[in-house]
Design goal:
Blueprint lengths: L2 H15 L4 E4 L2 E4 L1 H20 L12 E6 L2 H18 L3 E6 L5 H7 L4 E4 L8 E9 L1 E6 L16 H4 L4 E8 L2 E4 L2 H4 L7 E5 L5 H5 L5 E5 H10 L2 E5 L6 E8 L6 H13 L2
Parallel strand pairs: 3-4, 3-5, 8-10, 8-11
Antiparallel strand pairs: 1-2, 5-13, 6-13, 7-11, 7-12, 8-9
Length: 271
């Protein structure tokens, strides 16, 4: 700043603060008592302002952060379970809080009450972002020794007409403010003769299938996890039931370095 500009600024400061601040003496300018009092305060203020322009850094190992993610049982089991294992090693200070998907989810992403969401939703409003993590399809889960296993096609896939003869457990998904049944057999033109239960709790499937002839059609990745942990058999479904499962976030967190790192770690789990 040149001397004339500095003189104009000093004049403005003198007017605002009601003090001359600098007084000319025989050996140069001297600070007034008021200026001496302001010196340490000004130093702190300048230091604080400099933080505004520092480049943001993110150290996963040392960061302490809480993140809220909206998801159903599907997203929790398939996406968040491996994510938590990754964070335990790479970012142990990050806490993940799971919230249920609801008709408020997009609004909560917009206002900051949520950081991320997992869902199939593709018709998103302006300023929302999404990325497909994987393309999913449906499969049928039954207990070991289920009579349906004797009626499979030559390639080992399920014949929907055969499955419709057994009591079905229908999973409920949040759609807006209500729950809707995901009746896959009906969509394939072979509605079940009887619906034994409708439930939004996917994780109860192993218990509901044990010691019964019930069947449940569910996302295959979720079915694989259940089949690996209980006495259950997963049957492939030779039909076009595919859908994209997405990670969703709002523009307000697009440039946040910590949340960008987390999104990248989730992507890496489903390359």
């Amino acid at each position: 700043m040149g001397q004339p500009a500095a003189s104009r600024v000093l004049a403005q400061l003198r007017k605002c603060l009601g003090d001359p601040l600098l007084v000319r003496g025989r050996h140069g300018n001297t600070l007034t008592p008021r200026a001496e009092l302001l010196r340490p305060i000004l130093t702190e203020a300048l230091d604080a302002l400099s933080l505004l322009f520092e480049k943001e850094t993110f150290e996963p190992q040392s960061t302490q952060m809480s993140l809220r993610i909206a998801a159903t049982d599907h997203g929790t089991a398939v996406v968040l379970t491996p994510l938590i294992k990754t964070l335990a090693v790479e970012a142990p200070g990050i806490t993940v809080e799971v919230a249920p998907w609801s008709d408020q989810t997009l609004k909560d992403l917009e206002t900051g009450k949520l950081d991320l969401a997992l869902d199939v939703e593709s018709n998103l409003p302006e300023n929302f972002h999404s990325r497909t993590l994987y393309t999913e399809c449906y499969a049928c889960l039954v207990r070991h020794g289920h009579p349906l296993l004797q009626t499979l096609r030559k390639d080992g896939s399920l014949h929907p007409a055969k499955a419709s003869a057994y009591p079905q457990i229908v999973l409920l998904y949040p759609v807006g403010s209500r729950l809707e049944g995901d009746d896959v057999l009906t969509k394939l033109g072979h509605p079940a003769k009887r619906i034994a239960m409708r439930t939004p709790y996917f994780a109860s499937a192993p218990l509901l299938l044990a010691d019964t002839d019930h069947v449940i059609l569910l996302p295959s990745r979720l079915g694989q996890r259940f089949a690996a942990s209980a006495s259950l058999t997963l049957i492939t479904l030779d039909a076009d039931t595919s859908f994209d499962y997405r990670l969703i976030w709002h523009e307000r967190t697009q440039g946040d370095i910590g949340r960008s790192w987390l999104r990248a770690r989730i992507y890496s789990l489903f390359k």
